[in-house]
Amino acid sequence: MRITRDTLLRIARETAEQRAKISRRLICIYLVGSCLSEDPLLGGTTDIDLVIIHDSEPLEPREMVRLSDEIHLDISHYSEALFRQPRQLRTHPWLGPFIYNKPLVLYDSRHWFDYIQAATGAQFLQPEYVLARARALASLARQEWSNLAFAPSSDHRRRVVGFLKALENAGNAFAVLTGPPLTERRFLLELPRRAAALGRPQLSASLSALLAGEVEVSDDVWQSWMRHWDEAFQQVSSQETFPTRLHSCRSAYYSRAASALWEGNPGAAFWVLMRIWTLSVAHVPADSPVILPWQETCQMVGLDRNHFASRLEALDAYLDQVEEILDAWGENHGVIPFQE
C-alpha cells in the first residue's frame, strides 16, 4: 500500500468514527504527532497517534493496533477528570503542548475540546509557563539520577533504562524552551536544532557523548547490533506480559527508522536502537541469552557496570548545566525565581 499523509488522515478519521459508534461514553478523539506534519514517515513507517478522552477511567492507558508492517495505531486513553483544571495543563510538559499545537479533532461530543484548548492556550507561551514545563522535565531527569545514585537497582538492565530516561528528560528540558517536546524516534535527530536555537549547540553534543562516548562503529558492527536487538524485541513482544510500547506491531516502526537514520545520523540511530534494546532486555528473564550481546554493547560504549559510576558523575554535571541554563533563560525572560 502506498502511504501518504492523506491515507493516514483517512485511517484516523475512520478509526475515530468506528470508536465513537462503539461507545457513547467517549467525549473526544483527536490526532497528534507526526501524521500532522508534511513528512510523517521515517524509514517508510509511522504510527497514527490518537488521543481518546473518556467520561470515566479507561480500562487501559495505552493501546496499539497493527494495520500493516508500516503503520499502526498508537492510542492514548485518558479520563476527562485529568482535564477538569485546564489551566494547569499550561505547565504540563506533554499534554499541554499537544493540545496547544492544534491537533486535528476527529470527534467531539459537546465542543469539549474547544473549551479545553482555549483555557490551556491562553498565555501558553508566557515565559513563566514555558519555564515551568522545562523545569518539570529537568526535575524528572534529576529524580532519575537521584534514584540511580542513591537507591540503585541490583539489576543493571534497569539502571540503564533509568539512565536513558534521564537523558531523554534532560534533553527535552531545554528543547521545550523553543517548541514541543521531542518524541522517541526523532529525539536525537531534532535535538541539535533545539540546542542551536538556544545558542547552546554543545548541549546536544554533550548528551550524545553521555549516550555513547566517542565510539565509532562500522557498518558490520551496526548490522550485528540490529540483529541482536531484533532477537531481544521479538522475545519480549511474544511474552504474555510486556510494555505496550514493545508491542510486536512496532518492530518495523523502530528497526526501519533506526536503519534510515544510520545512513546520515548514526548518533540518532543509536539512540533509537539503545533505548528500545535496553527496554527489551529489561523485560526478559535474567537468564535469557539475548542479554549477553546487549551487555557487550554497553561495555563498548561505557554503560557497563564497571564504567557506570563515572557516567553517572558526568550525568550529574550535565544536569547541573541544564538547570543553570533554565535559570539563565528565566532571568533573561523576566521570570522571577521561586523563593522558598
Structure report:
- The chain has 340 residues and is α+β, with helices and mostly antiparallel strands.
- The chain has two domains: 117 residues, 2-Layer Sandwich (Beta Polymerase, domain 2); 198 residues, no CATH class.
- Helices cover 55% and strands 10% of the residues.
- It contains twelve helices and five strands.
- Strands 3-4-2-1-5 form a five-stranded mixed β-sheet, with helices on one face.
- Strand 3 and strand 4 form a beta hairpin.
- Helix 7 packs antiparallel against helix 12 and helix 9 packs antiparallel against helix 10.
- The termini are far apart.
- It comes from Anaerolinea thermolimosa.
- This is Nucleotidyltransferase domain-containing protein.
Which helices and strands appear, and what pairs or packs with what?
Blueprint: H1 5-22, E1 26-32, E2 46-54, E3 62-66, E4 71-79, H2 95-100, E5 104-108, H3 112-121, H4 127-150, H5 156-175, H6 187-197, H7 202-212, H8 219-237, H9 251-264, H10 266-281, H11 291-301, H12 305-332
Helix pairs in contact: 4-5, 4-12, 5-6, 5-10, 5-12, 6-7, 7-12, 8-10, 8-11, 9-10
